[in-house]
Amino acid sequence: MLELSNISMHFGGLHVLHDVNINVPQGSIFGLIGPNGAGKTTVFNIITGLLTPNGGRVSFDGHGLLGLKPHRITRLGIARTFQNIRLFKEMTLLQNVVVGAYRHMQYGVPSLLFGLPAYRRQEARARERAMELLGWMKLDHKAHDLADNLSYGEQRRLELARALATEPKLLLLDEPVAGMNTGERAELMHEIQAIRARGYTILMIEHDMHFVMGLCDQIAVLNFGKIIAYGQPDAIRNNEEVIEAYLGRDDEEEGATPGVQA
Ligand SMILES: Nc1ncnc2c1ncn2[C@@H]1O[C@H](COP(=O)(O)OP(=O)(O)OP(=O)(O)O)[C@@H](O)[C@H]1O
């Protein structure tokens, strides 16, 4: 469904991605992991059109993405959440999600200004869909609360509902459990499995190994801009190069733990 081929990227003299190849199959949950500064966010920024790589190709559902503006890429069916939560805190949960649905509403300025039936019908549909998505995220009972009043875990779930409102096929999640407590993490794992079961494809960046290993079908490990391992969680967990990248080169030290903890 999403294919990155030979992506390379540099910022001035800093070469941050070298020949990166990733293939995310439809219906899968794919994890992109690696130490801080490895280049993971840069990969997301390339997929979503915020950055243009210096070499390589990105294709999604048969469309080449390079050179397309971010809103065109959203329209093709790719949605994203961010490492730092970006919600409209002074708006209700429902309003936050309806904002995500606007790209599907096709009405002209006159209908907007004069409140014509076509506009009212589309808005009613968007609100209905938003309520459904809040239900998926177990937030429908708070639809009319302000986003500012939510707990951290709930804010992350609201972001997901808002991303889903753009009706994507592929969801990019940037550190979805960052800052969550154990209970919130377990709950989110469950929600993400439910989202996949509804037919969505998911690509996530995440540092929490328990979460990644428990959820992903396949994982790619980036280190200094290169893919050093690629495969199923078990193979990644026991990969020497991955263990070294995460634990440093002092694995002969007393007390060093073999394997990536999950
Ligand atoms: N716009 C930019 N200009 C210059 N350097 C950049 C830019 N964006 C990222 N970098 C550099 O590229 C490298 C990769 O950054 P990136 O944010 O992709 O890493 P990451 O794997 O997402 O890290 P983290 O886990 O800390 O978010 C880093 O060295 C970073 O400083």
TrEMBL record:
GO terms for cellular component: plasma membrane. It comes from the Bacteria. InterPro entries: AAA+_ATPase (IPR003593), ABC_AA/LPS_Transport (IPR051120), ABC_transporter-like_ATP-bd (IPR003439), ABC_transporter-like_CS (IPR017871), BCA_ABC_TP_C (IPR032823), P-loop_NTPase (IPR027417). The keyword Nucleotide-binding applies. The keyword Transferase does not apply. Residues 2-249 form the ABC transporter domain. It holds the Pfam family BCA_ABC_TP_C. One of its GO terms (molecular function) is L-isoleucine transmembrane transporter activity. This is ABC transporter ATP-binding protein. It comes from Candidimonas nitroreducens. The lineage of its organism: Bacteria, Pseudomonadati, Pseudomonadota, Betaproteobacteria, Burkholderiales.
